[in-house]
Amino acid sequence: MSTSPSSETASPPAQRRLFGAPPRAGALAEWALVPLRLFLGVTFLFAGLQKLANPGFFNEKSPSSIQAQLTGAARVSPLHALLSHLLSYAVPIGITIAIAEVAIGLGTLLGLWSRIAAVGGALVSLSLFFTVSFHSSPYYTGSDIVFLFAWIPLIISGPGTRLSMDARIAAQAATSQGAPSPVLVAVPFATVQRLCGHFNESKCAARNNEPCEDAACPVLVAGDQGESSERLDAVHRRTVIVRSAATAVVGASAALFAAGTAEVGKLIAGNPTTVGVNELGATSVTTTAGQSSSTGSSKNLGTLLGAAKDVAPGRPAVFTIPSSGDPGIVIELAKGDYVGFDTVCPHMGCTVQYSPSNNMLVCPCHHSEFYANNGDVIQGPAPHGLTKLDIVEGSDGNLYLR
Ligand code: FES
After folding, report:
1. Domains in the chain: ranges and CATH
2. What separation in Å is there between the alpha carbon of 287 and the centre of ligand 1?
3. Assuming Cys at both sites, which of 120, 188, 272, 285 could form a disulfide with 310, CB separation 3.0 to 4.6 Å?
4. Taking CB atoms and a 6 Å cutoff, what residues make up the pocket around ligand 1?
5. How far is Cα 126 from Cα 121, in angstroms, rounded to an integer?
């Protein structure tokens, strides 16, 4: 059986179009990591600055404090024993996390010590996975596991050659020592063959006319081994010195900027309209749980919270839950219809607050929203709803927690 000449000549280019690399794939591949670096760098830088700019993050009385978040995480994390011991170091831990996030973000954005930054980013994401999003279901709805795997390409390959201070410093150090640039540039092997004096119709004269192969190319291997170790040492030394100097300049600038951010945050926090735990208190009545109930038919209803008349629709009351020490809230949905919740956010343990304008409970940390009538999640990242409390009104006109 014969094959038509036209089909023989048409087939290879058609296959190349379908399965081969697109035009300029090698050059485009150098930019492949830039979007990922931009996203991870901006996200971590923003997260670190946001913590530094929020004085409530370091104030244990604030519902969005690191203490509140660690306490909440300790309740649900598989590392709860470790986290419980770390609670007394919450502020230093919070400062360390914020500074680490800024450093990781800057290193990733600038491509400076980027592999170390990527390892740091992966460790932060792994610790957040174990403390915050471990119970996300399905697992891929938690963001930390996605961040963890997003760091891995940067750990494996570094920042790439584009928009990278590491690559630029290495290239300049090599040039200053008269060595070829260490920056890897993707060149199609067909170009190497075209420029090579040994290539002749698929055979390699430098390999006794064996077939030409990229893995066994003597020209490429010689290029890798051609530099003396003294010169490479000199290039390496210069690279480390320049990189360290660049790190000092970037670090000092970042420290100044972070300190300025923290000061601006404090100024803004002085504004009474800023979200805080007192925002709820301004429209609600705080009662102290734990008083014993001793009147008439209400004797066995549970823990006395306070007078029912102190709670009204749109005007809830907060209290401390005796059994757990958690903050609780009681809301009157309609006349005589009370609901109560443990206000520890199931995401990272901040204290959620009642929002009278839309009759829902809102977390000040990452803006999870919950229905006021049953505590279910309206919008995450909280993985599930608030813990419901059993509130009853006694015949004596008081509210009780059962
Ligand atoms: S702690 Fe993150 S949404 Fe509440």
Report:
1. 22-180+227-273 (no CATH), 280-401 (2.102.10.10)
2. 25
3. 285
4. 345, 347-350, 363, 365-366, 368, 381-382
5. 8
